[in-house]
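pipeline/complex-builder :: batch 7 item 3
reading input block
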Amino acid sequence: MDVFGSFALVLAFVCAVYAFAGGIAAIISRHPLLIKSTRQAGMATCGLIFLATFSLEYLFFSDNFSIAYVVAHSNRDLSTFYKLAALWSGQEGSLLFWSFLLAVYVISVLITYRNKNGELMPYVGVVMAGVQIFFLTLNNFVASPFKALASPGVDGVLNYVARTDGNGLTPLLQYPEMVIHPPNLYSGYTGFTIPFAFALGALLARYPGEKWIHLTRKWTMIAWMFQSMGILLGAHWAYAVLGWGGYWGWDPVENASFLPWLTGTAFLHSVMMQEKRGMMKVWNVWLVFITFLLCILGTFLTRSGVVSSVHAFAQSSIGSWFVGFLALIILVCFGAYLKNRDYLKSENQLDSIVSRESSFLFNNLILLVSCIAILSGTLFPVFSEWITGDRISVGAPFFNKVNIPIGLLLLFLTGVGPLLAWRKTSTESLKRNFGWPLAIGLVTGLIALGFGFRQIYSWVCLILCVFVASTVVLEFYRGARVIRARSGASFAASAVDLTMRNTRRYGGYIVHMGMVFVFMGLAGAAFNRDLQKDMRQGDTMQIGPYTLLLQGFDTKPEKNYTAQRMLVEVLRDKKPLMMLYPEKRHFATTVENGTMVAIYSTLKEDLYVVYAGNSPDTQLPVLHAYLNPLVKWIWFGGAVVVFGTLVAMLPNRRAVLVLSGAQEPAVQTLAHGLTSSVTMREGHD
Amino acid sequence: MKKQAKFGIGIGVIIASLGFLAWLGYGESKTYYHTIAELETLKGPAKSQRMRLGGTVAPGSIRHLTGRVDFVLEGEGKTVPVSYVGTDPLPDTFVDKSQALVEGRPGPEGRFVAEVVQAKCASKYEAAPGGKVGAAPSSTERSGI
């Protein structure tokens, strides 16, 4: 199976080269058969990558311990679930997995547009094949996952050797999220290849109009959704496994995954400027380019350990390949831009500072500033060593200082932006749209102040969250009311109807609402508390409203590890509430230890309990308890964001024209002094 | 005032204030990274800076004392004695011959006083894909949010 897999990879490489070179020839000659054959070569590349990936999985599931990668990342006792995940637990497999996910996207694009956009698709195919060639080069020649174990025999000839069992999977990765998190994040990273291919293809082909933007909208949203899920699942994994009570540590690899998300978010917003007003064309093209570059950079940082080598961990020689590839992409992008920049001329100019355009402009500006700040902070050790010779790293205070105000500004724009009119917004409409939400937000702020709320950032965040949520609710309310007036259906049904008529706009609002929940959860971090105590059996510890009583210990042998558990009873108001079992796990195969956090999670707060090892002084076991308010809202908000993105991807149920029948009741509401924004703006967004 | 000028001022104010915050955060959190060999060559103020030091834990050198844990860090043929004075228990991965990263300041008599210790098993570790290269090794550090 390993020979089969390697062969499939080599053939995939050959096909990708054909799809690339043949594609260029096809663009020049415009020969229909050549165009068709290169497209099919593109599909064959993907099919072969699938075969290679499946054969590596087969090697894992058949416990083939003659393959170095299988030995390094699996063992017989590893459960099926984690054998699946072992594929992406190391360097070689991860890179193959990158190719695999990219192939899923590429083949979907090739099939979806096989008979459409004939002028553009050959260009797109060439760009996609180019990216595939790079990763297949790594898969074949730099980091092959199919290397067999071999040792030189007496005659100097290499002989195959097989081990009876593997080294096992790193305990930190033996956690359900670790099975879902990397595929999500990688689907995000790879997914941005598609908008990149379309943007570069359209620029090279001088493809007329904004069509590439319409074509790529769904692909960008899919990639963005996976990236969002990947980041949040990663945060949840860090929270539930690493046992430090937090979910985001501004670690280089975390940052790397956040960077393309920021520029991708900026892009999703700024394309609207191009669609509606024909502005920011150059900016959009570069945003896509930069997002893709950051995806490659993210993969590079994760895989090469160039920045983490500050910590002297995970190093690899693969870095130079990535640097070369990054340089090549920059070169190609610049070349294409310089050659065809006249094609990107803006059709309009900014009219007013209080307009939708300017809110997008500021949204993009601060997302980019945040991106630059995080990028420079992440790469600071590398650059400072180049410039001064000293390796200097910056920590959480740096990132927090810059990004908390940026986050609050963004949250503000989230509420304001969607309700500003294009070109110029009148004072009248400002009052109408923001009067109530602003009042509700400020009243909430005052009440919180009265209750002794003193954390300034969290306080501002609270006001903004309430403000933004109110604007969203008000929008749904106004729209639903118009529909209700006409159809007589319930409010809920009208709101659903409203959403389905303009999925993009109302899906967007749902995403914004999800972000409000996430921000609420983040703001809770200002009130985190934690307590640590050496515990004897029968000892108690008080944190917030909870009393933790150590009832005892036990040892629980499992298939792949042995768990030492603390049996902690949780009491609230002297009444028993539940049992928590924080664990230390010892993995015999890898001779490593793992921590298993026990969490009691409510909407108000998480009680987060860690068996933190034995005290250096007393040798007694240490119980570390955290009380983290509102954390659950982050995960909930993430789910809402994903749901909203899915809604926004649905086609509108009815054509906008049908809704014009609603004009009459809308006018009636106008007479009552309240405008229905749904009919006024329908069809614009 | 011209529209462009208004936008220019708005953008300028945002960037300038964020730049200022970045500068504050930089001053607060910058940490130098040095190798054990470099430690001896540091002079003057450079010697009292907050820094990170990477190396391997010398076998048999870990001693649990009251209020601190002493061990010896080896690297590039040099050694440095370290006292860990943090309150958090040491990470699971902190054992003999593990690779460790300590953060703190050089103390008296050439002893390095560490407030944070990160460690990983030397034998086997690979970055979590898309995951946490830096975060994966267990650590006594609690920063971020």
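note: The radius of gyration of chain B is 20 Å.
queue -> next item
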